Amino acid sequence: MECVYIFEDSFIDENFDAQPELDKNPEDREKQRKIIAAPSVRRAKSSIDNETKQLQEARKKRRNTVFIKSNLGMDLIKKVDLEEVYDVFKQLGTGRFGYVQLAEHKQSKLKIALKFFPRPQIKQADFVREYNYSYFLSPHPNIIDTYEGMYQTHDESAFFFVQEFCPSASLREAVERSPGGLTEDVTRVIFTKVLSAMEFMHSENLVHRNLKAENILIFDIERYTRVKITDFGLTRKVDSTVKYLEYVNCYHAPELCETVVNEVLTVNKSLDIWSLGIIFYYCLKGKFPWQKASIMCKPYWEWEQWLKRKSPQLPKRWDPFSEKSLKLLKRCLNPKAKDRWTVKEMRKIITKERLLKEAKVKPSVSKAKHTFSFDDHFVYLDEENTVKNYGTIPKITKKKSALGNWINNTWATMSEISEQVVSAQD
């Protein structure tokens, strides 16, 4: 059996801060040092004065780590009696390969998440692979922190490893709490952090392959300063080949929707870019653009027809997006995988451009008269008609002209049309 890939020495830049943002608080930092994943300590206990040195050593260790082979002996997967080490509470989530439960480490009193992989439903190689990717990526501040150590329950019914616990919510829950979608500012804050994590993964030639709102965790639902991605069960190296075993969902690119079960496909970064485009739309609209990226699904077919310029009219559901946002969506949700953008190109628009069109205020006739300015519009009123309708008014000193009369008539016509439109809308 082949081993999991070995990563190059270019893991993290020397200036990269390996410590999660939670550790900025001295109390939280102390808890993190005390956390014990089963019988072994993740990081050596040290004083706060030696924090920098410890972080540098941790970075160096992970940069030079050779991934544990998937055909390892059982001696590296330690048996743990859950009742002795943890107080296990409610279940947090489930997936095709396992489930996650909330627990408290008895010695440190720190709440953590235990990710279980029931046996014999999962192969040992798959468990080791997910642990390797999770632990390798976890120093990034926008990726869930995974504690060192692989374990199995005392009765050998399941493998598990330990991760930090998110006390707040997933992005899916956050959007569902906000009918109509999140605000532009909140979306920008969240996406900036998600793109940071994905740019890091792609720089290491890794593809997540399971990006969705449920796998983006928000640790502070009020300010959105701590956002992390999770679940690396489907993560693979770029250009590796895998058998397609997943069910189709609304995050999947069209090339996946056309793939049948057990068909071999090649992994590439464009799969993640498509998912990011779907999540971007979902955040701002509060719903998905379609259920399946297939021409059998009408909303997707309309989008594809517009992209191919076979339909001149942009589908109405895309109207709220700004010109720059629409450009991003066109390049992320492109049926041709080779033409999709990179994470870096997405980040330029997310951080610098307006994402939604400015809200339009429906004009009313009375408001138009109240805010009307002669100087602003350079309109010359017809004095005779004005006096007839409104009585004596101060004489307007500006001269009448043919151009002024034409503008006046045009303005009246436009006002009449506007009034009819408003009336029809009402």
Automatic annotation (TrEMBL):
UniProt GO MF annotations: ATP binding; protein serine/threonine kinase activity
Gene3D superfamilies xrefs: Transferase(Phosphotransferase) domain 1
InterPro entries: Kinase-like_dom_sf (IPR011009), Prot_kinase_dom (IPR000719), Protein_kinase_ATP_BS (IPR017441)
Key word Calcium present: no
Binding site for ATP: 115
One Pfam family matching this protein: Pkinase
Domain Protein kinase as annotated: residue spans: 86-356
Classification via SUPFAM superfamilies: Protein kinase-like (PK-like) (SSF56112)
Alphabetic keyword roster: ATP-binding, Nucleotide-binding
Classification via PROSITE patterns: PROTEIN_KINASE_ATP, PROTEIN_KINASE_DOM
ATP-binding is among the record's keywords: yes
Protein name listed in UniProt: Protein kinase domain-containing protein
UniProt source species: Acrobeloides nanus
